[in-house]
Amino acid sequence: MRICKLLFLLGILFLARPSDAQRFELGFMAGACNYQGDLTPGTARISFGNPHPAFGVHLGYEVNDIITIRGKITLTSMSGYDDQARKSWRLERNLHFKSSLQEAGINIEIYGLNVFKFMSNVAFHPYVVTGFNVFRFNPKAQYGTGVNKIWVPLQPLGTEGQGTPEFPDRKKYNLTEFSIPWGFGIRYTFNNYFSVSMDLTQRWTFTDYLDDVSKTYAPLDMLLSANGETAANLSYRGYELGFDQEITRDTPRGNPKENDWYVITNVTFIAKFAPIWDKLSEKKARCYKGF
């Protein structure tokens, strides 16, 4: 019954208030991406520290006055550093990461709900965003000294014991994952052809490894033997600051109860254009009028 009700409501959204000006649109986005996870600055899981530039493009279709569907591609990056934290155990852990991020997806913007009906004749149009994304990331950490420092990909190392006989339940995480966008925004319409929108959209992911940190430590001597020196040295970096914490398989390294996620705040410049079949129809109509 719930599925039937959902399909019924979606049908209403697609059929209600059909627009006389159904159009395609092309948009270009610029904004900022903020990572949220085990290495966020300060004390909270939610932070707008360390913003990274985000750029994207979309091709959209205005189904009716309520729904616009967009196919989007976004390029950005993210990072996190324990040395920006306030908790002593994080300062001692001394981890950091950076990662590029490429995202593609289908997003749905929902306008014109009854609560906004009084604004239907105004140039400002609030909306909510949802949809489905696939994205690729690749966390790296800086390793070495002096001029020999390099950025090392972390996933192949198995820094939490992935791929070792001692942790058979820990598999190396995928670098391609899915996310569900959820956010809100407002669009300003200049005329029938140009508009600009601003929105803040969270991406709820299905991974806790955007930053390569999730569960407990693997014992460093075991990690050294199984996955190598680099994996052991990048699993716990307190030694670089003179700390000497005892590491066991039960020592927390991250918070496995919450997945990592990210948020993108952006401004999008949009140009609308009529579908080619609409232009052909108009051309035929003009021809018929000539007879």
Structural features, described:
This protein is of the alpha+beta class and about 290 residues long. The protein is built from five helices and ten strands, in the order H-E-E-E-H-E-E-E-E-E-E-H-H-E-H. An eight-stranded antiparallel beta barrel has the order 1-2-3-4-5-8-9-10. Strands 6-7 form a two-stranded antiparallel sheet. Helix 3 packs antiparallel against helix 4 (about 230-235). The chain is elongated, with a radius of gyration of 24 Å. Mean pLDDT is about 85; it is low at about 1-20.
| Poorly predicted regions | 1-20
The span between the termini is 54 Å
- Overall 3D form: elongated
Instruction: Tell me the structural class.
Output: alpha+beta
State the helical fraction: 10-25%
Q: How would you describe the oligomerization state of the chains in this entry? A: single chain
- Helix-strand pattern, N to C? HEEEHEEEEEEHHEH
